[in-house]
Amino acid sequence: MQIKKATFKQSASSLYECPKASFQEYAFIGRSNVGKSSLINMLCNNNKLAKTSSTPGKTQLINHFIVNEEWYLVDLPGYGFAKTSKSSRAKFEIIIFDYCKKRETLVCLFVLIDSRLTLQKIDLEFMLWCAETKIPFSIIYTKIDKNSKSELSRNIKNIENELLKVLQDMPNSFITSAVKGFGKDDLLKFIAFQINETKVRLKNEMEFKK
Question: Residue 86 belongs to a domain with what CATH number?
């Protein structure tokens, strides 16, 4: 897939303020400061599309971007930022959980994990919640340019070993670097495949109902 056009659609402070569910949606989420905005900008060839900041927790709304006039890329609020007030964290959790559970056009939730770190408790808990809630998700390892090959391999292996203690199967995973542009083609190829598969499934369902 080649992204020819990506534009901001709107921000929403709740699920019910989101745009009409007229396109497939692919959402990105992760702990604050995991590199989510940089990754989105890299995928869309636009360094100014998603707002990046040195201050973690900047994304506080559900942000929809329409890509190629065909699907929505959704930037969700980050979770786990310690300096955010308890009331703000609770608000973000409601936004995130409502969207993930109830948004009918959500095809895949990409959970971003910092490849430099061991598996964080909050990431583990969130992915376990996704699995239990039957939310389709994939893992994106970020900032791989900051690891040596051996460090990256070791870190990912350790994370997967921890995940397999609580998950029956490993979800799809991708390794990326927003700085180097690594992983872009694999991610977009995966999204393109999901778009086509979903179209075929919906078409078959419609024909079955006739």
Answer: 3.40.50.300
